[in-house]
Structure formats: structure tokens, C-alpha cells
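Readers of this paper often ask what the protein records in our data store actually look like. The remainder of this section carries one protein's record, kept here as part of the documentation.

:::
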Amino acid sequence: MVPEQTPPRPSGLNPMALLGFVFAFFFPFAGLILSFVALGQCAKTGQRGRGLALAGVIFSAIGIVFWLLAAVMIVMWVFPFFGIALRQSKWYQDYISQAMAIAGHLIGYI
């Protein structure tokens, strides 16, 4: 009886794991995708790099949360300035006064 031989384990580090980890710091969405692909490849082929891919997933998630919070803060900071400038413009004041006059007429008809 011949013992079953396991296929040879691929040597070296999974390149997707390394790319996912590096991209996690600069392009977190791409880093997250690459790291998940690397996790699947490491599990399937047995290559090294599972820890690096897992770190890429974690750092990508943190980076995505950071970018989302930064975007929300920028929107919250920029849009009030647009609102103040709009309310102080003559066009806006004329528009509101005309809208109020039309609304007054409509209410008078009811």
C-alpha cells in the first residue's frame, strides 16, 4: 500500500497579501478587496501571507472608516458656508418673498 502524498505547498509569500497590505494605507477600498482575495488564496493553496492579508483587511477597514468620517466632516464644514452665502444673496431673498406671496394668495383661495 502506497501512502498518499500531499501536493507540495507553494513556497513564498502570496503577492496579493503584500499588495493588499500596501494598498490598505493608500487605497483602502482596493486594499480590502486584494486582502480578501489573498485570504482565499492562502486558504486554498497554503501559501504564506495569511497574517499579512488579515492585517490588510483590518487596516483597510480602519482606512475606509477614516475616509468616510473625513468626508462627513468636510461636508458638514463646507455646506453651512454655502447656506449662509445663499441666504444673504439678493436672489434668494427675492425668491423667498415671491414664494411667500404666492403661498399667501393660495391660502386666501382656500
In short: The longest helix spans residues 50-87. The chain has four helices and no strands. Helices lie at 15-26, 28-45, 50-87, 90-109.
